[in-house]
Amino acid sequence: ELQCLLWDVDGTIAETERDGHRVAFNRAFAQAGLDWGWDERRYGALLHITGGRERILADMADREGVPRDPVAREELALRLHRLKNKLYAALVDEGGIQARPGVLGLMREARAAGVRQGIVTTTSRSNVQALLGRLLGADWQAWFEIVVCGEDTQRKKPDPEAYVQALQALGLEADQAVAMEDSGPGVAAALAAGLQVWWRPSVYFPVLEEAVLASPRVAHWADGPPGRCRAGRVWQ
Ligand code: XBP
Ligand code: MG
Questions:
Q1: What are the DSSP E strand ranges found in the chain?
Q2: One Pfam family this chain carries (predicted)?
C-alpha cells in the first residue's frame, strides 16, 4: 500500500536547472573572473553528473588553465559552488522560478488526505530552503516529515542511498512510497531503492531509456499526476 510521496526537487517541483542553477553557475564563473560559460547544450550534458560541485570538477577535467594540483582544484570547485548557491538563492528570491503545474495542488491534496511527504534530492540544503521557502512559505518544513539533501549522503543519485535513507527514517518499506522524479539519475536511484516512480519529463530530461519507461514500477506524469491521494493512501 502506497502511503507516502517522496519529492525530487530540481526538474520535478520546478524547472530550476536551465534558468536557475545554470544561470547562477555562469554568474559565479564571471564573478570569480573566469571566462567559463555553460550554454544549454553543455549544461544538459553535464547534468548527468549529479551535484553542483561534482559538476564543476567534471567540467574542469576538460579545461585548460585550471589548477593541476587536485587539492587546489577541489578548493576552487568548492568556492565556485558556494558562490553559485548564493547567486541561485538570490535568483529564486527575485521570484525567477515557479512551481511546475500540478505540484502545489498534489502537495495540498496529500497533506489534506494525511499522506506522508518527504523531500529526496541531491541538491544542497540551502537551495532547497531557498526554493521551498519561496514556493510554500516560511513554514515549508511542516509539509515534509523528512528532507534528505546532497549533504546527507555519501553518494548522490543515481545511487539509491538518498531514497534508502528516507525510507529508513520514515520506517517504510520500498513498496509503501512513490518517488516523483524527472531525471535519468533520479529515476534510476528510486528504482534501485525499490520504489514506485511517477516520472515527469523536464526540459533536460524529455525522454528516458525505453527499458526504464517499460518498468511496471514507472508511471508517466503527463497532464497531471498518474494517481490521487485519498484517506491516507496514494492510489494509482
Ligand atoms: C539535482 C542535481 C543538483 C542540481 C544543482 O539532481 O544534480 O546538482 O543540479 O544543485 P536531482 P547543487 O534533481 O536528481 O536531485 O548545486 O546544490 O548540487
Ligand atoms: Mg530532478
A1: 4-7, 116-120, 146-148, 177-181, 196-199, 218-220, 228-230, 233-235
A2: Hydrolase
Domain ranges of the chain: 4-15+98-235, 17-93
The ipTM, to two decimals, is 0.96
- Name the catalytic one among 10, 59, 159, 182: 10
Cβ–ligand 1 contact at 116 (below 6 Å): no
Residue among 12, 21, 80 to mutate when testing ligand 1 (max atoms within 8 A of CB): 21
Using most ligand atoms within 8 A of CB, pick from 25, 82, 123, 159 the residue to mutate for ligand 1: 123
Instruction: Assess contact for 149 and 7: CB atoms under 8 A.
Output: no
Q: What is the pLDDT of residues 188-213, one digit of tens each?
A: 999 999 999 999 999 999 999 999 99
- With a CB cutoff of 8 Å and minimum separation 6, the contacts of 211 are none
Q: Assess whether the region 4-15+98-235 and the region 17-93 belong to the same CATH fold.
A: no
Fold assignment, 4-15+98-235? Rossmann fold (3.40.50)
69 included as an active-site residue: no
164-180 pLDDT, tens digit each: 999 999 999 999 999 99
**How many other C-beta atoms are found inside a 10 Å radius of the C-beta of residue 145?**
14
Q: What CATH number was assigned to the domain covering residues 17-93?
A: 1.10.150.240
Q: Which atom of ligand 1 is nearest to the CA of 88?
A: 16
The pTM score is: 0.97
Q: Residue written as cell 588553465? A: 65
Please say if 175 is a catalytic residue.
no
Does ligand 1 have an atom closer than 6 angstroms to the CB of 16?
A: no
